[in-house]
Amino acid sequence: MRLACELILIIGLIALGWQKSFKQWTHDWRGMQQTKVMPVRQTTAVPTTTAPHQPFVNAGYPRTAPPRPQPSISNGEWMWDSSHGSSLDRPSQDFQQHPNYQDSNGRRYWIDSRGIRHYDSSPSPQ
């Protein structure tokens, strides 16, 4: 029931403001009338000459703008340079060295990308 009353109130406000603004409604309610704009008569007077338009002078301060950087023209060879690196590049991986772990029996192993343990063939130093 409350929702229906709120919807009716909202629809009523929209309907009131659709054709006539709320400012006009309040002026009419208070008894005020909007002042009508009087049309201006055009005269056939001869236009007088005025001084030519002077460009804006910045109060005697020199107007200096910083130079714009010119775009560098590149052929794109840097993209294929293997020694070129950036902070967004993935760190290089050395596949010969793996982090070695040690199990409870003292054997050393490393884990590949599939999660399989690979034991070293050399005996563990004790």
The end-to-end span amounts to 84 Å
The fraction of residues in strands falls at 5-15%
Please work out how many helical segments DSSP would assign.
Answer: 2
Low-confidence residue ranges: none
Topology as a string of helices (H) and strands (E) = HHEEE
Characterize the largest beta sheet: strand count, sense, and whether it forms a barrel: 3 strands, antiparallel
Mean pLDDT: 75
Reading side by side through the largest sheet, how are the strands ordered? 1-2-3
Helix and strand content put the structural class at alpha+beta
Radius of gyration from the alpha-carbon trace, in angstroms: 42 Å
What's the β-strand tally? 3
Description:
With 126 residues, the protein is α+β, with helices and mostly antiparallel strands. It has a domain at 1-32. Helices cover 21% and strands 7% of the residues. The protein is built from 2 helices and 3 strands; from the N terminus they run ααβββ. It has helices at residues 2-19, 22-30; strands spanning 101-102, 108-111, 117-119. It has a 3-stranded antiparallel β-sheet with strand order 1-2-3, with no helix packed on it. Strand 2 and strand 3 form a beta hairpin. It is flat, with a radius of gyration of 42 Å. The chain starts with a helix and ends in a 7-residue tail after the last strand.
